[in-house]
Write a structure and sequence with these properties.
Structural class of chain B: alpha/beta
Shape of chain A: globular
Strand order of the largest sheet of chain B: 6-7-8-3-9-10
CATH class of chain B: Alpha Beta
Distance between the termini of chain B: 44 Å
CATH superfamily of chain B: P-loop containing nucleotide triphosphate hydrolases
Shape of chain B: globular
Oligomer: heterodimer
Largest sheet of chain A: none
Order of helices and strands of chain B: EEEHEEHEHHHEHEHEEHHEE
Number of strands of chain B: 12
Radius of gyration of chain A: 20 Å
CATH topology of chain B: Rossmann fold
Number of domains of chain B: 1
Number of helices of chain A: 14
Order of helices and strands of chain A: HHHHHHHHHHHHHH
Number of strands of chain A: 0
Number of helices of chain B: 9
Largest interface: A-B, 29 and 37 residues
Helix content of chain B: 25-40%
């Protein structure tokens, strides 16, 4: 199993690299590969250089970061909560972020304020979920967290409906587009900030991964192996949720990645949490980069919503995997 | 050595303590068994040992050190616990499952060492699960699963081993093999503390039996002092006789049909 890790990760890294090359090379403006390569280095037609370096490259990077972030979040949550259906969006993150974003849109705030509001909404929902689970269960019980998250999410959805029910059409359209997810507005500033934020989250999840391996066995077995069960569960939940919240504030709701990628990662045969984190990050990044490419080129010049494309790719896979898991 | 002194433990919001003033000593080199009816507090002792329920009074010490004062990781280096309920959320190769026993010895930043590999190999050998290591945890029978979990406990390299009903759901051969394994581990110097419903096997393999009833010690001592018809009949509230097993000479419990009036 350990001998297998480098080859699996190597193969996945190649897949991601190919997806990223395709993401930079293809788009509505046709640019030949050698020209793309020169443009990346800043040579050739300034317009092409601008398209490749300031539009496509940050967009591909943002897609990769969003996918990788959602994947490590999902990988950590599924093992810690011992549930193959656990994913960041199920746990209040998306609902809270959507409430924040929709309120910002409805209040007529500028597009700069929407990510901030989304992040604030997600953090608020996560804290409420933790508080509810703690009050109801007395300790950080995985089932309590799941239930609290689902309930908080349902409440958020209701709040969105109330806000949008009497909103002007422009607000509804903007809010809906935000909820469908997109990396089209990618800027290097966003990419850099998200990269730093996700790096901190991913390293934290990697550090606590040995505890997560034990938590996946159940409460008593984890305690028997010296894990502070309640504390470790809360920490993983909080960090995984914050990582997902950051991706949501940068790209809106990109569905299904957090749910499906952990299953894809386990399908490689890897089992230890650290290996799954690494594999999941590569798979998630490649999946969202590829989905964004499909979203851009499927029906030019219009773009399909990214969150819809990832789900369109994700659902058939997940159904197939469900049969395999039976 | 595991030493419980006057332990009182209560579940949150419970009216009465589940364990009320229980003292047990499980020394090295011996098998100590805790028996008693359902709900008598056996598993509560294990949960208290794991720090999953706080002690209201009393103390639990491992090798002379109170566990309340130990870091959980340090506790897990001293005492390995094989809990009653456990199922991996996702199937795991047996070798990786056993390797999790090294977790108490590995910090977040430390790397897997040759000593860790050796501990895992030794544990696999001692528990006799060598032919299972390539299998997946969801392909194991009940008996194999228990032996694999005991191997994980041995990989912890602790001086004490605690097991919560290790032979539930096992057939005769697997029951016997688990008990023989535990007796062998005690002979090799471990302190083995075992919670069990298998009175007759316990009577054959344990050096000392502690009988719990409603959270208190109803009887304690050698198998012949605890395995008495009047004692067991009162605690289990069922008519029984205790005979001497003709084959091995150990006291054996025979439950009778229905209530004697």
């Amino acid at each position: 199993m350990t001998a297998r890790l480098p080859s699996v990760l190597g193969a996945l890294a190649i897949v991601l690299l190919l997806a990223m090359i395709a993401g930079v090379a293809f788009g509505n403006v046709h640019v030949a590969l050698p020209v793309t390569w020169r443009a990346l280095r800043g040579e050739g037609d300034p317009l092409v250089v601008a398209v490749v370096r300031d539009l496509r490259l940050p967009r591909v990077m943002l897609a990769a970061l969003v996918g990788g972030g959602l994947a490590v979040s999902g990988v950590s949550l599924q093992s810690t909560l011992r549930n193959g259906l656990a994913e960041p969006y199920l746990l209040g993150v998306s609902g809270g972020a959507a409430v924040g974003a929709v309120l910002a849109v409805a209040a007529g705030a500028g597009w700069l304020a929407v990510p901030v509001a989304a992040f604030a909404g997600a953090v608020a929902a996560v804290l409420v979920t933790l508080g509810v689970a703690h009050a109801a269960g007395g300790r950080a019980d995985g089932r309590m967290l799941l239930m609290a998250g689902v309930v908080v999410g349902a409440f958020a959805n209701a709040a969105i409906m109330v806000v949008l029910a009497n909103a002007p059409p422009d607000t509804i359209r903007d809010a809906t587009w935000w909820m469908m997810g997109s990396v089209s507005g990618a800027e290097w500033r966003t990419v850099r900030a998200l990269a730093l934020y996700l790096a901190i989250g991913a390293v934290t999840l990697w550090l606590v991964a040995r505890d997560v391996d034990a938590l996946a066995l159940g409460e008593e077995a984890a305690a028997a192996l010296g894990v502070r069960v309640a504390r470790a569960t809360r920490l993983v939940y909080l960090v995984a949720a914050l990582v997902a919240a950051a991706t949501v504030s940068a790209a809106g709701l990109v569905g299904f990645v957090g749910l499906v990628v952990p299953h894809l990662a386990r399908a490689t045969g890897l089992r230890s949490q650290r290996a799954l984190l690494a594999a999941g990050m590569l798979i998630g990044a490649a999946l969202v980069v590829a989905a964004d490419l499909v979203a851009r080129v499927a029906r030019p010049p219009a773009e399909l919503p990214l969150g819809a494309v990832t789900a369109l790719v994700g659902v058939p896979f997940f159904l197939a995997r469900l049969r395999a898991l039976r | 050595m595991i030493k419980l002194t006057e332990v009182v433990a209560r579940y949150p919001r419970a009216a009465a303590p589940a364990v009320n003033g229980v003292s047990i000593v499980a020394p090295r080199g011996r098998v100590t068994a805790v028996v008693g009816p359902n709900g008598s507090g056996k598993s509560t002792l294990v949960r208290a040992l794991l720090g999953l329920i706080p002690l209201e009074r009393g103390a639990i010490a491992v090798d002379g050190e109170e566990i309340a004062r130990l870091d959980p990781r340090e506790r897990a280096r001293r005492v390995a616990v094989v809990p009653q309920r456990e199922s991996p959320a996702f199937p795991l190769p047996v070798r990786e499952l056993i390797a999790l026993g090294r977790r108490p010895h590995l910090g977040a930043l430390s790397t897997w060492s040759a000593a860790d590999t050796r501990a895992v190999d030794d544990a696999i050998m001692a528990a006799g699960v060598g032919e299972l290591v390539e299998r997946s945890s969801d392909e194991l029978s009940g008996g194999e699963w228990q032996r694999v979990r005991i191997a994980r406990g041995l990989a912890q390299r602790a001086s004490s081993l605690v097991l919560d009903e290790p032979t539930t759901f096992l057939d005769v051969a697997h029951e016997m093999s688990v008990f023989e394994l535990l007796a062998g581990l005690a002979r090799d110097g471990m302190a083995v503390l075992l919670v069990s419903h298998q009175l007759n096997l316990v009577a054959r393999f344990a050096d000392e039996i502690v009988l719990l009833h409603h959270g208190r010690v109803a009887a304690a001592g050698s198998p012949s002092t605890v395995m008495r018809g009047d004692v067991l009949e009162r605690v289990y509230e069922w008519p029984v006789v205790v005979v001497r097993d003709p084959a091995v000479g150990a006291p054996a419990l025979v439950p009778l049909r229905g209530r004697r009036d």
